Amino acid sequence: MDLRLNGKRALVTGASSGIGAGIAKVLAQEGAHLVMTATNRDRLEGVAQEIVSAGQEKPTLVTADITEAQAVKDLAEKAKNALDGIDILVNTAGSSRPTDTQADDTFWEEAFELNFSSARRLTQALLPDMRKRQWGRIINISGTMEPRSLNAASAAKAALHVWAKGLSCDVAAKGVTVNCVAPGRINSAQIRDRLHPTEESRQEFIARNIPAGTFGEPEDMGYMTAFLASPLAWYITGAVIPVDGGMHYFSH
């Protein structure tokens, strides 16, 4: 199926590894022009080289710490200038923040800056042009709404879900869709090194929780994101779509 993304202009945050890199690769395969951003320039360069080696156009790379409000504004301007506008924003940057009951305000504020506020600020910076053009796609990579322990990132992702649903209602008539994609266990450094560091722990979790029988790959998130970014998905907005091999059935 032709997703009609050839020539569309996309900004992907958190694109230096894992889900963000997988999404960037799929969008590039579909012909989108890319701006990729993360804090690690060397890793961004590595992903960009993979995209070029696969025969696609080299993305524009911008290093930025999107937990800082001014850095988000600067990123938005650099992205718009690089591609003469942005049609698709994929808010991928984020990270788990497990905690205890006594974490201080600094810890919680950092978790929300990374997992919620950065996406909100970047969307607000790019949304006026999308509304003016009567076309835009905002896709947020979120997370589970049924945590089994306290995690500040889960609270921030819950805010992301509700914010996205409300925003989707306000901009739908302007040709802009806003959706969230909730990953299950996707093969990435965060999952394999921190949550499931041994093959035994991975297989035990899969047997108990994932009907599909395996962890997903970053590109699996990319395929869903690319569809939601396409003109074909114009009637899908305000949704939270799991990509988890059936794990959502077990709610953890």
By CATH, the architecture is named: 3-Layer(aba) Sandwich
Instruction: Count every helix, treating DSSP H or I runs of 4 or more residues as helices.
Output: 8
Question: How would you write the strand order of the largest sheet?
Answer: 3-2-1-4-5-6-7
CATH C-level label: Alpha Beta
Report the β-strand fraction as a percent range. 5-15%
Give structural notes.
- With 252 residues, the protein is of the alpha/beta class.
- It has a single domain (9-240), classed as Rossmann fold, CATH 3.40.50.
- Helices cover 47% and strands 15% of the residues.
- The protein has a 7-stranded parallel β-sheet, sandwiched between helices.
- Helix 1 (18-29) crosses helix 8.
- The longest helix has 29 residues, at 105-133.
- The mean pLDDT is 93.
Structure keywords:
47% helix, seven-stranded parallel sheet, 8 helices, 252 residues
Summarize the structure.
The chain has 252 residues and is of the alpha/beta class. The protein contains eight helices and seven strands; from the N terminus they run E-H-E-H-E-H-E-H-E-H-E-H-H-H-E.
Secondary-structure topology with pairs:
Layout (H helix, E strand, L loop, with lengths): L8 E5 L4 H12 L3 E6 L2 H13 L6 E4 L5 H15 L4 E4 L13 H29 L2 E6 L10 H20 L4 E8 L5 H7 L3 H11 L8 H12 L10 E4 L9
Parallel strand pairs: 1-2, 1-4, 2-3, 4-5, 5-6, 6-7
Helix pairs in contact: 1-2, 1-8, 3-4, 4-5
